[in-house]
Sequence to fold (448 residues):
Amino acid sequence: DHPQQNWSKQQIDRAAKDHVVFTYGPTDAQRDAVPLLRRGEGSYLYDDDGKQYLDWTSQAVCANLGHTVPQSVKAAVAQQLDTLPYVYGGLGLVEPRARLASLLSEILPGDLNGFLFPSSGAEANEAAIRIARQFTGRSKILTRYRSYHGGTATALSATGDFRRNFIEDAPGFVRLMDPNPMQFSWGRDMADASERARGALREQVLGEGPDTIAAILVEAIPGSAGVLLPPDGYLQAIRSICDEFGIVMIIDEVMAGFGRTGKMFGFQRFDDVLPDIVTFAKGLTAAWLPLAGVAMRSHIQDHFRTNPLGYGATYQAHPVSLACGYAVVKHMLDEDIVGRVQRETAPVMEAEMASLVEDFACIRQARAVGLFACCDLVSTKTGDRVAPMAGGGPNAEKVAAFKRALKEEGLIAFFRNCMIHVCPPLTITPEELRDGFGRLRRALSSVD
Ligand code: PLP
Fold:
């Protein structure tokens, strides 16, 4: 009875086949693997036949409060639409912009007190890079090989770990060696990893010329790259090198931020790390409307009081998204969502991930921090990692079978390269989380 939701599956499939362009796939041949989703509730999604799927990924690790919108968020969005649906951020100020900035300044540590609001994570990183360049008068940006910072040209140039598909890197980006050894063996031999990384990083900064480097941009815990918890001391090493050479330290919290790691921000898992700039998106509105943020410390904010950044985008500081963001963050605080992750579901996640490795020869290197978890799927015959995105290859059949088994079990899982990501909504209950591991185990058993 909803005027925009009354097409049959056949009508939708036909129109999608004729007119919808998918970006990461599915290709025409893989289309059947993707469910037509009709409805969401809590941690679950339902397809056209009413089949239930547990959302094991929070979609792009962003639907952090699941698929039921709290009344307070609906009311805030409706009220903004009723009173003032849109004002261009460059031409007028609206109340939710001031309120959200004030609230964020309370939850971010130190003097991370100045905010701008782009509409995606990639744009937030692009803005942060521009801020660092304008603030320092330098141009180079140092980022990690194991990283993802977004799909636009500049953000992709900052990214180490993704297919480029016809985009050349922009000039001025320099890649850093990672503290986590490449072969996912980060669980071993990490005792002096941060000292080695500090030495290598300092050498590289000196080699590049410190007075050419605007910023070091890193995820506190690289997410898409495989939830790679850095060794203790690594972020502190970056902080001290940035201090030594007047380099801006930017932490990308687009995926890790807003409770994913069991802290409000991922960098707060490490003592004494106060970045100069923090970027975030996704969880800020629980993905219900597009909104991102760039937080900057006072010394940087002060610079832009007299030297405007000149950053403009039609949807930056969109009033409806801001109203949604404010209501979501307020809801998270009122309901102690992050505390509940830490106390109730993170311990279940840790234990379940650890026992997967014990029970399945094809699972290696389980890592979990809060509800941010990942493990590697390996071939039990050769020990090689199984890489579904590579296409074809000796493991192609196994990968296809595993994906079919996941669908049959009703588990929407993010499976990239050799990695199975486990990032359910932060509102998942311990029982639902255990149920998800049951589904994953059955899918693994059917292909192990
Ligand atoms: N930075 C990180 C760490 C991310 O994980 C992502 C998206 O996955 C982005 C940036 C890009 O965000 P968006 O897709 O909103 O542009």
User: Anything to note?
Assistant: The chain has a mean pLDDT of 91. The domain at 13-68+336-445 is CATH 3.90.1150.10 (Aspartate Aminotransferase, domain 1).
